[in-house]
Amino acid sequence: MTDKQKESGWRGSRDVWLNAALTALIDGGVDAVKIQPLASEMGLSRTSFYWFFKDRADLLAALLDHWEALNTANLLESANAYAATANEAVLNVIACFIDNTQFDQRLEFAIRGWALQSPEVMTRLRDNDQQRISALQTTLQSHGYDRQDAYVRISTLYHGQIGYISMQVEETLDTRMKRVPFYTRTYTGTAPSDDELARFYARFNYVPAAP
C-alpha cells in the first residue's frame, strides 16, 4: 500500500481482499484465511474488511464461488467447445487442464484439501465433480460412444488429471506435450491425427522436436 493510500484511509477493495484470501488459501490452507492476518499482510485495518464482506464465512463462500467460476466454468466451456472429432474434444479438455489461467491447479488442490476438513465443502466439491464428469461424458456420447463407454473413458481422463493435481506431479511442458498423443489415444481409442496435434500444440506455442 502506498503512503497516499494510507493517508486517505484506503480500505482496499473486494477484489484486493479476495485475492489476498486466495493466496492465503493456496499457500497455507483454509486455516490461513483469517481476517486479521490478511489485514496485517496488506497494511489495512481489520475494520476495512467489513466494507466488503459480512464476516469470515462470507469470505470463504466467495472463495468457493471464485473456484467454481474459474475451474468448473472453464472446464465446462472446454467440454462444450466445438470439436469435429472425439480426439479434438478430448484435446480441448486436456488443454484446459494444462492452462493454469483456465484451470488453476494450485487452487484446485487447496479446495480439495479444504473439503477434507469440511463436510459442506466436500458436498459442493462432489457436486462440481459430477457436473464436470457429466459434461465430459455428454461430449463423448455426442461423438458416437455409448453411455457406459463414454463414462469409463471420461472417468479415466478426469480422475487421471485430478490425480496429477492431488499427487503434485511435476513435469516440464515438453514432457507433458510428448505424452498427450498417448493419453488421447487412451481416452478415445484412436490416435490423434497430425493436424489435430498441430492445432493443440499451437495453443501453447509448442514445437515438437523432429523425430
Give a brief rundown of this model:
This protein is mostly helical. Helix content is 69%, strand content 0%.
Description:
It is a single chain. This protein has 211 residues and is mostly helical. The protein folds into 2 domains: 11-53, Homeodomain-like (Arc Repressor Mutant, subunit A); 68-203. It has helices spanning 3-7, 14-28, 35-42, 56-80, 86-98, 105-115, 119-141, 147-166, 173-188, 194-203. 25% of the residues are buried. The model is unreliable at 1-9 (pLDDT under 50). InterPro entries: Homeodomain-like_sf, HTH_TetR. Keywords: DNA-binding. Residues 34-53 bind DNA. Residues 11-71 form the HTH tetR-type domain.
Helix-strand layout with pairing:
Blueprint: H1 3-7, H2 14-28, H3 35-42, H4 56-80, H5 86-98, H6 105-115, H7 119-141, H8 147-166, H9 173-188, H10 194-203
Protein name: TetR/AcrR family transcriptional regulator
Pfam families: TetR_N
Domain HTH tetR-type: 11-71
